[in-house]
Amino acid sequence: MKQVFGSCLCNRVTFTCENDFSHFHLCHCTQCQKATGSVYAANLFTDVDNIVWLTGEAIIKRFNVPGRSISNAFCSECGSAVPYKSLSGKALVVPAGSLDSEPHIQPLSHIFYAERASWYDSITACKKFDSMPD
Ligand SMILES: [Zn+2]
Ligand SMILES: [Zn+2]
């Protein structure tokens, strides 16, 4: 199985794992909107032991949302989302945007879709620019 590599924005946290993901969910829950500052968290799921931290594991911070099995793990230097063990301990959650290589699967599902941002449905109608428009 091929390996994928990942890193945070400041590159202090780097990791590698086997390109062996079981699920790829786009989570629209209100907590993921807060954590990402965007419409959803794009998370890959894999075996809980499928990670080797190359650098920076000690500077990762984690917040567990009270009353809900949702966590936010991030680089304490740059705030980027990084992989974490699910609260149940059954899966490793890997933010898709943290990867520097292509995962072998495509997104499979929108989850907590009922909580989606009111403006999510208009995204597909947005004009597209290859850089910041004038
Ligand atoms: Zn960082
Ligand atoms: Zn969520």
UniProtKB/TrEMBL annotation:
Which residue range or ranges hold the CENP-V/GFA domain?
4-114
Instruction: Indicate whether Nucleotide-binding appears among the record's keywords.
Output: no
Keyword vocabulary terms for this entry: Lyase, Metal-binding, Zinc
| Lipid biosynthesis keyword on record | no
Pfam families in the record, alphabetically?
A: GFA
PROSITE patterns membership: CENP_V_GFA (PS51891)
The record ties this protein, via InterPro entries, to: CENP-V/GFA, Mss4-like_sf
Q: What SUPFAM superfamilies does UniProt report for this protein, alphabetically?
A: Mss4-like
Membrane-crossing ranges are: none
Q: Gene3D superfamilies attached here?
A: glutathione-dependent formaldehyde- activating enzyme (gfa)
Q: Which family does it belong to?
A: Belongs to the Gfa family.
Spell out the protein name for this chain.
GFA family protein
